[in-house]
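User: Could you check the structure of this?
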Amino acid sequence: MSELSSMEVEAYLKQHPDFFHEHLELLEHISIPHPSGDAVSLISKQLELFRIRHYEMETQLNGLIEIARENDNSANKMHELILAVLEADTLETAIENLNVVMAECFLTDFFAVRIISADQSNNALADLFVDPESAELTHFITELNSNQANCGRPTLAQSRFLFGENALEVKSCVIIPMAYTEIEGLVAIGSREEDRFHYSMGHLFLTQISEIIGTRFAALLKNATV
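Assistant: Sure, the predicted C-alpha cells are below.
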C-alpha cells in the first residue's frame, strides 16, 4: 500500500471535519509546532485560535457598540439644537437658546454667529452682522471659498473677530461657513482645550449644524422684515 501524501491527508480531513470526533484518542498523539518552539496538542492549538477569534470578534463588537453610542449621542445633541432654534421666534432668542444648548449639550466654551449682510439696521444685534465689504472677512477667505469647516487653532485676528474679549482664551475652534442656506455667514465654536477641535475631524456633522442654524436664521430674518 502506497504511503499517503500530506496533500491527500489534508484533503481527506477537509472532507471529513468530524474525523477527530470519532478518533479522540489520536489527539493525544498529534502535535503541531508552536511559535514559541514548543509542541502543543491540536486541541490546545484550536483553543488558542478560538480565543484569538473570540477576542477579535469581541473587539469588533465593542467597536460597533461604541460607534452606535456615539451616533445616539450626536443625534440627541442635534435634536436639542433643532429645538433650540425652532422654539425661538426672534434672532435674539435664537442666539440665547444656542448659547445655552452649546454650553450644556455640546459642552463648548464659546459660540458665535456672524451673518454677512449689508443691512445692519438691527442695532440691538450689531455684533451679529458684518458688512460684505468688511476687511475682517479677509481672515476667513479659505472657509468662505471652500464652503467647508475649518478645525484647529484660529489665528488671533479670527479669534478676536469671532470671540471678542475672550479671544486669547480660545485654544482651538471650528469655523463653519453657512453653506447651502439662503444667507451667508459663519458659525464658530471655540474651546479652551487645544485638542478639542482638531484638523482631522470630520466635517459632515459640523456642516449640518451650520445648515440648521443658517436655515432658521434666514427664516427669522424674513419674519423680522415683514
